[in-house]
Amino acid sequence: MEGFAEIRGQFPALDQEVHGHPLVYLDSAATAQKPRQVIEAESRFYESDNAGVHRGAHELAARSTMDFERARSQIARLVGADAREGHEEIVVTAGATAGLNLLATAFGNASQGSGGEAAKRFALGPGDEVVVSEAEHHSVLLPFQELCRRTGASLKWFGLDEEGRIRSDTADSVISERAKVVAITHVSNVTGAITELEPIIRRAHEVGALVILDVCQSVPHLPIDVHALGVDFAVWSAHKMYGPTGVGFLYGRRELLEALPPASFGGSMVELAFLDKPAQYMAPPARFEAGTQPVAQVVAAGVAAEWMLQVGLERIAEHESAITAELLKLGDIEGVRILGPTSPEARIGTVAFDVAGVHPHDVGQYVDSRGIAIRVGHHCAQPVHRHFGLFASNRASTGVYNSVEDADRLYEAVSGVRAFFGV
Ligand code: PMP
Asked: What is the number of the ligand 1 atom nearest to the C-alpha of 29?
């Protein structure tokens, strides 16, 4: 990629040696490193504007509010959502997990009568179905499993093919007339497989089900347009898209956000509060943003979005795709099995692999001793590992700052693992 050295040079954390080797960071699916612009945006906010947003009458509060709302617009632009005042479709959350819990809790509240007539479209009960997939992160699986328990609805799921891809071709049978919610991942955090969404979204909408898309692993790597995709809700975390930890975003079609009851209650989300009758909640997004918000982190997340747009989403995807192809060569090493699609077009650069006879923790430590950071374990996605007959795996994952040489360093290290452990 033209300008690669300059882009990589913007990430201070990458400029270090680990165990005597230049760091190769291949763990961006867990969390991405941050460019200097993002790190500085957070401290600049504290140095100049820091104040509570929306309600203050003073200059710093006004500036903070502007910064916060600018970030909301930057985030909206990254995913093609509406940011116009009164039409906002981005809700600030504490991360993807919080966003998914917000939705599952709000649907549960609607099932118990919260939100009145308008919220009935979110209500579930016995006989209704919620559909997920075997590839889901526990952050999708568990909140919706709990929603089923709470409402008496049943959980259904898409199976996976031999390369770990969600069987979108079974949409017509998996999503029945009784389905109310389909919560599915856009890209798996284990296999890197990109879900073929069209048949799933078409069928879900045919039966009147709402589609929630987990875009945690797609937003950092692929251009996304939530309107063009036609999803109803989408959730992701800022820290995987070069932004700070502790914040994330929920996209909701405006009309749906207006009908959805809140999931969390407190300050800054009511128009009127009484002792003797229910409160009147504010319009979205404020209705879903109870309590003091992580303003500095949101502002920095907005800068991260702007930074990605400036680098260019197509350019990021193209650059990482070359590294993905290189990482897939790991499968040529004797005893190494890739868990996921073998074609770079069907996936992103999140490449999980198994080394026969060597525990992932040993693989992780061995490559770490050579300065290479990868992830080991079940990556909070146990069902997909079970699908491959495993409990845990090794996972290398790319960011825009990686190079083909990084993938080669990993290849070289993994090539020595089995001999080192005597298998
Ligand atoms: N979904 C997917 C696909 C993920 O990769 C992750 C993070 N590993 C999550 C959800 C949860 O994100 P967070 O831990 O930032 O809330």
From this structure: 5
Q: How far, in Å, is the centroid of ligand 1 from the Cα of 203? A: 26
**What's the CA-to-centroid distance between 358 and ligand 1, angstroms?**
27
**How confident is the model over 414-423, as pLDDT tens digits?**
999 999 999 9
- Please state, in angstroms and rounded to a whole number, the distance separating the CA atoms of residues 97 and 93: 9
DSSP string, 103-170: HHHHHHHHHTTTTTGGGGGG---TT-EEEEETT--HHHHHHHHHHHHHHT-EEEEE-B-TTS-B-GGG
Structural Rg of the chain based on CA atoms: 22
The stretch 65-69 carries a mean pLDDT of 97
pLDDT above 90 (res 356): yes
| Mean pLDDT on 202-226 | 98
Question: Active site residue: 1, 18, 83, 380, which one?
Answer: 380
Tens digits of residue pLDDT in 365-379: 999 999 999 999 999
- For ligand 1, the distance from its centroid to the CA atom of residue 250, given in whole angstroms, is 13
Pairing between strand 280-281 and 336-338? unpaired
| Ligand 1: residue whose CA is nearest its atom 7 | 30
Task: Assign 56 a pLDDT band (cuts: 50, 70, 90).
Answer: confident
Q: Please tell me the distance between residue 213's alpha carbon and the centre of ligand 1 in angstroms.
A: 12
Q: What is the pTM of this model?
A: 0.97
ipTM over 0.95: yes
| Pocket perturbation via mutation, ligand 1, pick of 93, 188, 216, 397 by most ligand atoms within 8 A of CB | 216
Please report the domains of the chain, with CATH numbers, ordered by start residue.
Answer: 4-30+312-420 (3.90.1150.10), 43-309 (3.40.640.10)
Catalytic status, residue 148: no
**Reported confidence tier of residue 55, pLDDT bands at 50, 70, 90:** confident
